């Protein structure tokens, strides 16, 4: 049996402010730093040892990984970064307050933008300063998005899985992946063979390790969060209610 550990980055400063973040490169909040360290301690207490780690190009994910590795005392691990693990690109919504956006456009529309499968938010134009074509880190990447649906995110995450992660797992390497709410939701969708309706309702909390048990063909045997039920339920509920105008 193979194990794969997934962790959504700790709370970011824009999570704290309840703003759409996407590819904007914000850092962790103080709470997020604590969540990352707690995730590392939880993994250490469970005896996890890894061969390598993988994360996105965004600092909230990278810093979460650093803090986890520090708590694990495994900072020597090789780390692979890949833009395909980035959060879903929220286009022109990036920077907007989620509740204010829900008040303006309605909870149903914002739910579709946040959790819908094939709905893209309004896109950034290529000449917008916030478009990723204007960032040196993405200079080698073709066809950069100005907005993405979860379906778009799944395409790149599945490609990354097939090209990068699956060969490592097949070779029995123990891998820690630290990424984002939507890149991880995309991964969970194809691992669990979820429907579009099921993934729309699925939320991943910040800073709580999710451990997948896989067979030799990388099929899912089972999975568990490293958290007690009350902590997990509260964390999932917080994510679920972020964009409700009534919350």
Largest sheet: 6 strands, mixed
Tell me the name of the CATH homologous superfamily of the domain at 2-87 and 155-240.
Phosphoglycerate mutase-like
Helix percent reads 40-55%
CATH topological fold name of the domain at 2-87 and 155-240: Rossmann fold
**Coarse structural class:** alpha/beta
Mean of all residue-level pLDDT scores: 93
Rounded Rg: 17 Å
* SSE arrangement, N to C: EHHEHEHHHEHHEEH
Q: How many H/I helices?
A: 9
Provide structural commentary.
It is a single chain. The protein is α/β, with parallel strands linked by helices. The protein has a domain at 2-87 and 155-240: Rossmann fold, CATH 3.40.50.1240. Helix content is 41%, strand content 12%. It has nine helices and six strands. The chain has a six-stranded mixed beta sheet with strand order 3-2-4-1-5-6. β2, α3 (59-72) and β3 (79-81) form a beta-alpha-beta unit. α2 crosses α3, α4 packs across α5 (107-115) and α6 packs across α7 (181-192). The termini are far apart. 38% of the residues are buried. The model has no long low-confidence stretch (mean pLDDT 93).
Protein topology:
Blueprint: E1 2-8, H1 13-16, H2 30-45, E2 52-55, H3 59-72, E3 79-81, H4 98-105, H5 107-115, H6 150-170, E4 175-179, H7 181-192, H8 196-200, E5 210-214, E6 220-225, H9 229-240
Parallel strand pairs: 1-4, 2-3, 2-4
Antiparallel strand pairs: 1-5, 5-6
Helix pairs in contact: 2-3, 4-5, 6-7
């Amino acid at each position: 049996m193979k194990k794969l550990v997934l962790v959504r980055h700790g709370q970011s400063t824009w999570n704290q402010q309840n703003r759409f973040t996407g590819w904007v490169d914000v850092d962790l909040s103080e709470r997020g730093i604590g969540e990352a360290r707690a995730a590392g301690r939880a993994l250490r207490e469970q005896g996890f040892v890894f061969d390598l780690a993988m994360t996105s190009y965004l600092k909230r994910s990278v810093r979460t990984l650093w803090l986890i590795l520090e708590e694990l005392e495994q900072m020597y691990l090789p780390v692979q970064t890949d833009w395909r693990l980035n959060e879903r690109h929220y286009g022109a919504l990036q920077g907007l307050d989620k509740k204010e956006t829900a008040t303006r456009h309605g909870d149903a529309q914002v739910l579709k933008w946040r959790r819908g499968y094939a709905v893209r938010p309004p896109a950034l134009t290529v000449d917008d300063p916030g478009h990723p074509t204007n960032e040196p880190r993405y200079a080698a990447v073709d066809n950069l998005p100005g907005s993405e649906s979860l379906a778009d995110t799944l395409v790149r995450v599945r490609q990354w899985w097939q090209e990068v992660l699956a060969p490592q797992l097949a070779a029995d390497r123990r891998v820690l992946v630290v990424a984002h709410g939507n890149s991880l939701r995309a991964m969970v969708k194809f691992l669990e063979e979820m429907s579009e309706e099921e993934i729309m309702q699925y939320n991943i909390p910040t800073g709580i390790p999710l451990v997948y048990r896989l067979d030799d063909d990388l099929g899912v045997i089972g999975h568990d969060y490293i958290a007690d039920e009350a902590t997990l339920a509260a964390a999932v509920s917080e994510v679920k209610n972020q964009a409700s105008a009534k919350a």
